[in-house]
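User: Hi! I have a protein structure encoded as tokens and I'd like to know what sequence might fold into it. I'm fairly new to this, so please keep things simple.
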């Protein structure tokens, strides 16, 4: 199928078609307005990125900002399980590196030096948990990427109370440590120091061009490790992090309602109405993902489980 698929979207506007693929992928990946379907989401993200790269059009340009936005969102944690989407994000970012885009190099480094050390299997399951993980990585490891993500948490109120002063302080610290997207945010938001942060963006991009050559195999040197950020974080948020951990470890009453909706009780193999087998891929927060032998995917949520069956988008699944 053509990535532009003008007939489906009834449009000749390539930008509009890209946005349609992106919005469809966003909906299926987050479950906003529909039942989550990660396989469909990944397929539609591939179409969106291909459209952004100019595939299927004779005159379209390689739109780097569109690709960067999608990859950044796939690595950004909640509401998408990072473990599911990080491999796809790195596939896209690697293609950007091959094309010589410094943004691709920045995204690869964000994953290698930020997401991976934090633990992609932990991110994207709960906004408060994401916040706690970024807080810990920023405070204990001095991670520039964690500082950048933590800054966004404070600025948007994701997983914590909004605190613009703390958010801007963290954003500056991340930018000064070489985090490209933090510097770009400041260049667009800090009007009084816009020239300073625009200069920082240029300097970081120059450094990333050398990193890009390493990733492309042009040079034989190793990539440098990012500098450690030293910054005082709001102490009350540390208490909130500990409180969240305590809540996570507490077990409530084991009544029948909770037992029948506990995803950990789901078996590895379940069956649909046609007695076809579905095998569990993993449990991600409040949802469990299963694949059948044809590679199709379904997602089971807490509320859909009732004793020995679950209602899904492919019908009722059962087990013995």
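Assistant: Happy to help. Inverse folding works backwards from shape to sequence: for each of the 320 positions I chose a residue that suits the local structure. Here it is:
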């Amino acid at each position: 199928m053509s990535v532009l698929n003008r007939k489906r979207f009834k449009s000749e506007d390539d930008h509009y078609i890209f946005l349609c693929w992106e919005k469809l992928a966003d909906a299926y990946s987050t479950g906003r307005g529909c039942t989550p379907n990660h396989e469909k989401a990944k397929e539609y993200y591939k179409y969106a990125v291909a459209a952004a790269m100019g595939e299927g059009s004779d005159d379209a340009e390689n739109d780097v900002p569109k690709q960067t936005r999608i990859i950044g969102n796939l690595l950004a944690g909640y509401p998408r399980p990072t473990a599911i989407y990080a491999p796809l994000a790195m596939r896209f970012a690697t293609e950007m590196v091959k094309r010589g885009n410094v943004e691709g190099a920045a995204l690869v480094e964000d994953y290698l030096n930020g997401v991976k050390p934090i633990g992609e299997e932990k991110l994207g399951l709960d906004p408060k948990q994401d916040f706690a993980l970024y807080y810990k990585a920023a405070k204990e490891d001095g991670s520039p990427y964690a500082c950048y993500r933590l800054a966004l948490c404070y600025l948007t109120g994701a997983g914590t109370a909004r605190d613009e002063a703390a958010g801007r302080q963290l954003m500056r610290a991340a930018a000064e440590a070489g985090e490209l997207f933090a510097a770009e945010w400041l260049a667009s938001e800090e009007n009084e120091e816009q020239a300073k942060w625009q200069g920082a963006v240029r300097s970081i991009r120059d450094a990333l061009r050398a990193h890009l050559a390493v990733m492309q195999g042009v040079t034989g040197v190793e990539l440098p490790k990012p500098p450690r950020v030293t910054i005082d974080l709001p102490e009350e948020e540390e208490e909130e992090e500990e409180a969240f951990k305590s809540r996570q470890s507490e077990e409530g009453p084991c009544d029948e309602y909770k037992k029948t909706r506990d995803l950990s009780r789901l078996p590895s193999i379940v069956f649909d109405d046609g007695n076809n087998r579905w095998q569990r891929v993993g449990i991600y927060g409040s949802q469990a993902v299963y694949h059948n032998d044809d590679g199709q995917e379904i997602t089971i949520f807490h509320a859909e489980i009732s004793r020995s069956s679950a209602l899904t988008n492919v019908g009722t699944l059962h087990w013995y």
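A useful reference point when you look it over: The mean pLDDT is 83. Feel free to ask if any position seems puzzling.
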